[in-house]
């Protein structure tokens, strides 16, 4: 007796009853998010080279930080990448969880974390490639390996860890969904 006079359609991404998903949303629909997460490694790697010391150094523009042989630039360069990974991981985790984190499957979470790891590796490689292409040539052959690189390889774990943490926090702090079949329409 309390049903609406006009049928209410539910969006296909809502997960609730109603219309089925769009035509052709079979197995490939679950791969779009992880592919986008991994592909985000390209702009993150370019941003790393643009912002970090020994790269283009758009943050400080200090010429003393331009030399990759200066050990004082290694920590700030790694921290710029860590900050970018943390931001990318949090955004990826929030977008993966969406507005219904309780409906995520284990496979979706594992796939998102693996895509974050792939994105981190892609970002690292992109930054190193940009550094080898566009950075000035080092003065000596000995310093060629330290021109633009990552010193703390553990930084590569920040992106997937941030995805997992964001999904966990979204799940913990989300409101519980009402169970189907319960309600006041009896």
Task: Please outline the helices and strands.
Layout: H1 32-39, H2 41-51, H3 74-97, H4 106-134, H5 158-172
Task: Tell me what you see in this structure.
The protein has 186 residues and is an all-alpha fold. It has one domain (29-172). The protein has 5 helices and no strands. Helix 2 packs antiparallel against helix 3, helix 3 runs parallel beside helix 5 and helix 4 (106-134) packs antiparallel against helix 5 (158-172). The radius of gyration is 22 Å and the shape is elongated.
The main sheet comes to: none
Which of globular, elongated, flat, extended, rod-shaped describes the shape?
elongated
Specify the structural class. mainly alpha
Which stretches are poorly predicted, pLDDT < 50 over at least 5 residues? Answer: 10-26, 141-145
Structural Rg: 22 Å
Count of spatially separate domains: 1
CA-CA gap between termini: 9 Å
Number of DSSP strands? Answer: 0
Q: Which oligomeric form is depicted?
A: single chain
- Arithmetic mean of pLDDT: 80
Q: What's the number of helices?
A: 5
Strand proportion, as a percent range, falls in under 5%
Spell the H/E element sequence.
HHHHH
Helix content: 40-55%
